[in-house]
Amino acid sequence: MRTWSFSSLxxxxxxxxxxxxxxxxxxxxxxxxxxxxxxxxxxxxxENYAKHGTPLADPYEQFKPFADQVLLLPGEKxxxxxxxxxxxxxxxxxxxxDAWCRGVIDVGVVDGERALVADYKTGKIRADSDxxxxxxAFIMHTYPGVNxxxxxxxxxxxNKVTAETYRRSDLPDIWKHFLTKVSRLEQSYEKDRWVPxxxxxxxxxxxxxxxxxxxxxxxxxxx
Length: 223
Fold this sequence. Notes:
By secondary structure, the chain is an alpha/beta fold. 37% of the residues lie in helices and 21% in strands. Strands 1, 2, 3, 4, 5 and 6 form a six-stranded mixed sheet that branches. Helix 1 crosses helix 2 (16-24) and helix 6 packs across helix 7 (171-191). The termini are far apart.
């Protein structure tokens, strides 16, 4: 089985067939949209500002307060950092052949027994903390002295932050949550069986075609 990440596991949960066509058969290419392109530019601008002090251009200046709040915090800071764990939950290099799960954390601050993990979001506010839950686990396995991780989504377009805190005692529940999904993914690899999960995304939102999925239909044009 290939290394999994939050995004790839989320794709599998949405539809195993879509996962297979994207990551294994590779018939669904990654397509940049205006929204994802904007998000990439915002992330790059904030990273360069935080790391190197590169002034923010006009379109990104409005997000400067979010970065400044992080820069004022005490502790070790990192930006757009790659993390990876082996199957035994030991930290390893991102491109290590033994890497089992991986992720890239937008913003992190480690200060003794406490840490902060933040993720910049440029889209709609969503009530889903799974990504940060996984990132909190990355931090606690990589930094054994950290016992508490505050996680936050910075919803840049809405000038809002939503936060949750995870403690080392939460690690068993965090992994139980993800391993339930990962075990299903492993079974699909073992049986080479990728059953489609029809939803509204089949109406042209999925990158598959009728050739590769019987549930795919063209997107309806708005009147």
